[in-house]
Amino acid sequence: MGMFQRDQQIFADAAPLDDSYEPEDIRERDDELEKYQRALQPVIDNRPTSNIFLYGKTGTGKTVATKFMLSHLEADAATYDDVDLSTVWVSCENLSSSYQVAVALVNEIRESQNKEKISTTGYSQQRVFDILYDELDALGGTVILVLDEIDNIGHSDDILYGLPRARSNGYVDEVRPVIIGISNDFKFRENLSPKVKDTLAEKEILFPPYDANQLRSILKPRAEKSFHDGVLADEVVPLCSAFAAQDTGSARQAIRLLREAGELAQANDCESVSEDEVRDAQEELEKNQLYEGMQELTTQGHAVLCALAYHQSLEEVPIRSSDLYERYTKICERLDADSVSERRVRDHLSDMNMLGLISVYEHNEGLSAGRYHEYELDVPLTAVLDVLLSTNRFKDLADIIESTADDNNLLQSDLSDY
């Protein structure tokens, strides 16, 4: 008998537990889908359509809802002879400027038409914008530009100013560009430049975290499709839902927890999945979640984390936000990236604290020094370096931090905790 054998007793079809799975219907988002439908209705009516921005933490249904709505919109638009609709989808996960987003949009359009892509360097920003306008005008009609994880562009928001004004400025004649921005950062709009805020004229749709009952409703049909009959104990789906609701309210987390529990049962040659597998899976995923939480930080979040890691490597922690901010601005200068205010850096630190990545200590020294906070990593420095080293933009800085930590013998002791 071979080392690997096909599972016959746990999983019937694991596809519904995959991150890429697109369900036939969207559960527990009726209000959000109704707002989404109203915002997209002008496309079918062949009239100007507002830009749409979706806000919510990871796993709250923004992307899957967008795919669901656009799928129906495209199908319905095809039944009208006078509606010309195209959609272009770009993930901004590794894009940190309007220039890079514009290049990505141009190349996404050209790839769909089997045309030669443009280089990612060597053009002025205005030249790339002009190429983008030409490509959009050639498409004509309404073109919906989906910018997933748009918060990664930070303060480089020129594209959010240029696209909405392209028609009124005479850059395009035959097309109506519509932006759908998807952001994990509820405060993203607050940090846009005033001219962008005035120009966007967007509809906002908020996707709050799911509660346990909503997660159970989402999980149940996936569980029924994914596992053989009678395999799941009655408490498995409710427990997966409860764990995810207590933590992040993320459907993605609940689904991954269910899948991990099934894989543990399979690995242990169990005939069923019980509460024990769910609890073991939760413990395993908590470790992985910290790593994913660091990976999913924005460029600004990574810069703040990098600054804290640097002070950690020098054993200069806990550190006050004012001192940390000084290091953060130097990191941004080295990366040729815009820096944000010290208040915004504290917001990023607060987010990282909620993710369990850092510890925050509050001090109150009365009238002499007042109240202030100090920060240090709450995860191994090696884990932070793994994330920074895997991000091209931060690799050189991570190498410096790693070397500094190694000189101080920090990594050897750190490894014992990782």
UniProtKB/TrEMBL annotation:
InterPro entries: AAA+_ATPase, AAA_22, Cdc6_C, Cdc6_lid, ORC1/CDC6, Orc1/Cdc6_arc, P-loop_NTPase, WH-like_DNA-bd_sf. GO terms for molecular function: ATP binding; ATP hydrolysis activity. Involved in regulation of DNA replication. PANTHER family: CELL DIVISION CONTROL PROTEIN 6-RELATED, ORC1-TYPE DNA REPLICATION PROTEIN. It comes from Halorientalis persicus. Gene3D superfamilies: 1.10.8.60, P-loop containing nucleotide triphosphate hydrolases (3.40.50.300), Winged helix-like DNA-binding domain superfamily/Winged helix DNA-binding domain (1.10.10.10). Residues 48-206 form the AAA+ ATPase domain. Keywords: ATP-binding, DNA replication, Nucleotide-binding. The keyword Nucleotide-binding applies. This is ORC1-type DNA replication protein. One of its GO terms (biological process) is DNA replication. Residues 305-388 form the Cdc6 C-terminal domain. Belongs to the CDC6/cdc18 family. The keyword Nucleotide-binding applies. It comes from the Archaea. ATP binds at T60, G61, K62, T63, V64, Y210, R222.
